[in-house]
Amino acid sequence: MKDATKPESTSERDRWNTVRDNPQRTKGHYESYYVRANHPQRALAFWIRHTIFRPADTGKPAQGELWAVWFDGETEEIVAAMEQMPLSRCAFSSQRLGAQIGHSILNDEVLYGTARQRSSELSWELSLRGGDAPLLLLPSHLYERALPRAKSVVPRPNVTLSGNLLINGSRRVDIDNWIGSQNHNWGTRHTDRYAFGQVCGFDDAPDTFLECASVKLKLGPFWTPPMTSAVIRVEGREYSATGLRRALDSRSSLSYFDWKFDTRGNGFSLSVHMTAPRYRFAGLSYRNPPGGEKTCLNSKLARCHATLRRSGLPDRELHCEQRAAFEILTDDDHHRVPILT
């Protein structure tokens, strides 16, 4: 448990946003910078991602990928688009947040661009401001090591976004102080299976932030048990249950599309239940650097209930009805979610 204070400068945030891609890498590499946000009250959300994809097969070209998904829980419509282009038309900063795919840009202040795919088109012009101190889902020393092969950090939790989105060239959505996050992940291969969750403000605790994941790894013909890491910031304090021992001591269950877990850290325990109906998921196909593809079932309109128990303090019951991010990575094809990109 520690203070969850905001950084005095952007130096720490810059550190966690610097690009990790190495053109000399022979094992392959993926790296993504994404921003997501939800309407404060309505069932509306978006997710925009800038990605480097470098296959382990050096005979295949490295590419940049621009992803965008609009989630409308009022009409139950999901619009998704993804564009690919040569990495020579992309740029990523080694000093701070700076991701460019063609003419689409993400930096500390602005996010603008357009993604087109078949009959879907999404355009955005957004500004970013505020945000809390970076949040780590792994012990800090593991980010510089080869294992685990997939790493994730939130350089800017609870960032405020304003501007507009244009959906299929005709519908304009004004984004007025939506709360979300700016995220960075990378690795030499995607995790074999995972459930991932994030909440940028619960309905009854708008400053609270939750980041959590349950993963399963395949070691030869065998699968590990589910291993869960979680960090929650509430009432100005951070409660962290990360590291291998904590992950192995946790308990979790996942079925389409319902995820529960229990974990504990120093002086606290955390129980989380996250769920969303099938029709609120977008199916996305992620290429894996070693070869093949994984399917990401991606929702930004999930329900989450969390119970935080702390020594010497009252229990905290936290709930959000439709503002949680919930993702499932799988190679199973029985989910019956349409693959949109």
How would you sum up this structure, described in words?
The structure is a single chain. Strands 2, 3, 4, 5, 6, 7, 8, 9, 10, 11, 12 and 13 form a twelve-stranded antiparallel sheet that branches. 4% of the residues lie in helices and 61% in strands. By secondary structure, it is mostly beta strands. It has a single domain (11-19, 28-330), classed as Beta Barrel (AttH-like fold), CATH 2.40.370.10. It is built from two helices and 25 strands. Strand 23 (282-287) and strand 24 (293-310) form a beta hairpin. It has helices at residues 11-17, 244-249; strands at 2-3, 29-38, 44-54, 63-72, 77-86, 90-92, 98-101, 104-107, 110-117, 120-129, 135-136, 150-167, 171-187, 193-202, 205-216, 218-219, 222-223, 227-234, 237-241, 251-255, 258-265, 268-275, 282-287, 293-310, 316-330.
List keywords for this structure.
341 residues, mainly beta, AttH-like fold, eleven-stranded antiparallel β-sheet, 2 helices
Write the layout of secondary structure elements.
Blueprint lengths: L1 E2 L7 H7 L11 E10 L5 E11 L8 E10 L4 E10 L3 E3 L5 E4 L2 E4 L2 E8 L2 E10 L5 E2 L13 E18 L3 E17 L5 E10 L2 E12 L1 E2 L2 E2 L3 E8 L2 E5 L2 H6 L1 E5 L2 E8 L2 E8 L6 E6 L5 E18 L5 E15 L11
